[in-house]
Every structure is written in structure tokens, then in C-alpha cells.
Amino acid sequence: MKDFVEQIQxxxxxxxxxxxxxxKTTLTEKLLLYGGAIQQAGIVKGKKGARAAVSDxxxxxxxxxxxxxxxxxxxxxxxxxxxxxxxxxxxxxSEDTYRTLMAxxxxxxxxxAAKGVEAQxxxxxxxxxxxxxxxxxxxxxxxxxxxxxxxxxxEIEQVLGIETYPMNWPIGSGKDFKGVYDRNAKxxxxxxxxxxxxxxxxxxxxxxxxxxNLDQLLTKPLHDTLKDDIELLDGxxxxxxxxxxDHGKLTPVFFGSxxxxxxxxxxxxxxxxxxxxxxxxxxxxxxxxxxSEDFSAFxxxxxxxxxKAHRDRIAxxxxxxxxxxxxxDVYHVQGGKKIKLSQSTQLMASERETVDxxxxxxxxxxxxxxxxxxxDTITTAKVPFAYAGIPTFAPEHFARISQVDTMKRKQFVKGxxxxxxxxxxxxxxxxxxxxxxxxxxxxxxxxxxVLEYRLKNExxxxxxxxxxxYSYIRWIENEDLDPKTLNLTSDTRRVEDFKGRxxxxxxSPWNIDWALxxxxxxxxxxxxx
Length: 529
Ligand code: G4P
Prior knowledge:
Blueprint: H1 2-9, E1 11-18, H2 24-35, H3 59-64, E2 72-77, E3 80-85, H4 95-103, E4 106-112, H5 119-131, E5 135-140, H6 149-160, E6 163-166, E7 168-171, E8 179-182, E9 187-190, E10 203-206, H7 214-218, H8 220-234, H9 242-246, E11 250-255, H10 264-274, E12 281-283, E13 286-288, E14 296-304, E15 313-321, E16 323-325, E17 328-332, E18 337-341, E19 344-348, E20 351-353, E21 357-359, E22 363-368, E23 377-379, E24 392-393, E25 397-403, H11 409-421, E26 426-430, E27 438-442, H12 446-459, E28 463-468, E29 472-476, E30 493-497, E31 502-506, H13 509-518, E32 524-525, E33 527-528
Parallel strand pairs: 1-3, 1-4, 4-5, 5-11, 6-11
Antiparallel strand pairs: 2-3, 7-8, 8-9, 9-10, 12-13, 14-15, 14-23, 15-22, 16-21, 17-18, 17-23, 19-20, 19-22, 24-33, 25-27, 25-28, 26-27, 26-30, 29-31, 29-32, 30-31
Helix pairs in contact: 4-5, 11-12
This protein binds guanosine-5',3'-tetraphosphate.
């Protein structure tokens, strides 16, 4: 029993969020190096064809050299069992990226020190705040010309609305980058650029700010700036508050350079110290303790046709309580049936491994003969319960999709419905209409290509796509309201999704405001619940 609780307590499950090119892949690789999970950096994603992709299960991924879907990387480090939920890094990211955050207990936000907070970071951050999970910030690429660190902190606070607490402080940047000052240990971690691999241990120097001998290491102007900066920081502006960290109200900030492996190890050490093990999750029967004897998990992602020959699907689940054992019998709450979990998978680095045992906090992939949907719960509890469902996130790109050959209507409808059920696309139709005209909404435009590819390859259907100019979607929350009675701009469209929820498609935020101003009591939501 003690061992069981220890297993759960030592787990840390998190996702890394960033805008493309900020250095998420590089940081992931360096973290994996510490765990010995990979021997050599460069295995995480096949960006330019040179690296092996983790989940290159689909041709389209191979062709593009990007990772369309996300997977999990697990490794042990310093007595912890770390699960990194890998999220697609390409700018054509999808709803999967958002859903993955539903399975994470905390997030690491990587920011490019020259660019600050970028568009995709903002979107992903919003999902994290929706859940109130702790967020740790790694300001990357300090070995290049960077923006003023105070400006960067201010931008995080202003744009994202979260307080910051710098754990260390950079000394110069780019050619002048000398290292970071650890505010807690009051020592300098000196930067030595040892080339791209950067495996050498950084040198730690006890630093009494103001000591003349520091002038040699830092040059006097840098030393003076550091002294002033630290004085300013130690002033009232930033205060560390663990409770705020736990609730995602304050982010501990670390400066470093992932590429040169500078500052990654101290970051990992502090992250492990400050982040939390799996916590209780809300279900329709109250909070479920992760250390409960009863096993439970929910589906946050479904990945189809990993092996085209078998047409199989894998349902990725986050274990929320208890212990998983291969072959165990569980109850699938939404299906109302008992099932045996005989084929289980964990995606780790470049291999797909079979898992025999896993604990709360872990992610497992279960062979899915087509019974699971996103958000489903499985459990061994005598009195079954269901975890709160996963919200539907607002797509930002829309297109009208129709089949080229009208004789293939049946395959078209089946393919569209199945792909939508997996959560790869969202489909909408006219209010009360059928499948004559289908509007497809996606979070990232690459999903249109995936849809086209899959319909052709798996269902033998060619499609025609007409892009639509809508970019904003809102679910109507007023249940008793007839959308036809709404006073809307002529370019606003009324549709419904396949759960029968009514929505509006807008071409601009201005039109959303217009709708709200001209329809008293109208309540619109950015997520479908
Ligand atoms: P992403 O997953 O967030 O998209 O970013 P990724 O790690 O792929 O990094 C994007 C680019 O930034 C890469 O260069 C990477 O080498 C570089 N980079 C990451 N961290 C640092 C850092 O700390 N300092 C510096 N100077 N560069 C960094 P690339 O040329 O686009 O790709 P590659 O050919 O080197 O892989």
C-alpha cells in the first residue's frame, strides 16, 4: 500500500506550451537527456526530416516532417516519474493540443526571450487558466540578443494576466550573456558556451553582489546592472506565494538557453520541487482521490488508424486514480458496459511500448474497437462515476465540404461522422438541416488536409472544399431561445453542431459585439459544454 501511494506521489504530469520555434522541442530533448530516456538529443520530432518523429504514424506527418498528434514521454529522474505530454509544435496545431492540456497537472510555458508572448502561447495559456493549473515559465534563448527581462515580465503580467516571480535573473544576453543569478541560493551560474550539445556542467559561483572580484567575471557595468536589478526585484514588486503558484495565479520564471543546455537542470530541480503530484479530480460523485483503490481514467484523445492495415484506433487516457494492470476488467461508464483492457500502449520517445502497469498520473493508450468517445470515463469502482467532460474548443477555420462523386454519399457521411467522433474535426449543419451541406470547423488548417487525406485513403471519397470567411464561433447558452428570432448582421450564420447545440458563426469580433448589443439577454460561450 505504501509503495502504491509512493508511486502516485512521485508522478509529475505536465505539458509544454509555446509558440512554434520558441524551443519546446529543444527543451523537451534536454529534459529527456537528464532522465536518460534518450541517448542523444534530436529524437523528439522530425522537423526537417533529419530527426525521427515520435508519432509518424500517418503519411501526412512523414511528408510534412511534423507531428500531427501528440503523445506522451515518460522518464525517471531523481526519484520522480515524469510524464511529458507532447503537444504538436507546428503552427497548424489542432484541438488535440487543447485536449492534451486537460490531461496535464501543470504546464511549462516556453517563451523566446527576443519575442516575448506570442499568439499561440496566448491561446494555450487561456486553456491552462480555464483549468487553474500551475504554470512555470522558461524564458529561452538567452544566448541570443534578448529583450529587457523586466519588459518580458511585464508583458507576461499584462498580456496573460498572471503574476510573475523570477527565480533567477539573467546577466546580459547574446554575446554578453554571462549566466544567471540564482535568487534563492544567491549564487551565479556561469554560462560557458560549449557548442550545440552543451552537456558540460555549468559552473556555480558564490556571488556576494558588490564584491569587487565579481567585476572580473561580469565586467563592472554588468555587475552594476545586476546589483541594481536584484535590489529592484527584492523590493516589494514581486513576492513568492506557493498557494498562488498552485492555483495558476503566479508563475515562477526561469531564464536559460535550452540549446546550450544552460539553466535546464536547475529549472527541472525547482519545477519538481514546486509542482504537485496528481490531485483529486472532480466527477459527478464528487472529488476522486488519486490514491483511491479504485482505478479510473478518462479519454482525452483518440488517434485513428495508427496501423492502416488494421484500421485500429487508440484511445489515450489519463489515469486519475488507482493502478492500471493489463488485462483488467473495467466499466465503461458512457457505454454502460464492462470491458477488458488487454491491449495497452504507451508512446515513449520513438517506440511504442506495451505497458503492464501504470498509476494515477500516467497516460495509457488503449486499443479501441470504436467504443470510446472523447471525455469518456472507465473505472473499477463499485459505484461508477463520470469525470467532467472535455469542452469543445472553438474552431477558427471553416469550410464547406461536399463529396465530388454524389454516388458515394454513404461513405462520405460515415467518414465525416467517424472523423468528427474522434474529435479531429467539428461538423456543423444548418438549423434543423441534414448532411446535404456540411460546414467543417477546425482549430488548425492542417486538419483540413488530414480530413481530405483520410477520406480518400480510408473511405475512398474525394471531397471539394470551399473555405468560408468565418473565424469566430460562439455557442448560444440560452436554452429556450429560438436562434431565428435573433437580430444579427447579414454575414452572421446560425448553425447547430451534432449534439444539437445551437451556435453562431461570425466573421469578426465586431459582429459578436453587435449581436450582444442588439439581443438583450443573449449569452454566448467560447467553449461548448
Ligand atoms: P519548437 O519546438 O518550439 O518549435 O522549437 P525548437 O525546439 O524546434 O527550436 C526552434 C529553433 O530554435 C531551432 O533552430 C533550435 O535549435 C533553436 N533554439 C532552441 N533553443 C535555443 C536556445 O536556447 N538558443 C538558441 N540560440 N537557439 C535555440 P532551427 O535552426 O530552426 O532548427 P534546428 O535545425 O537547429 O533543429
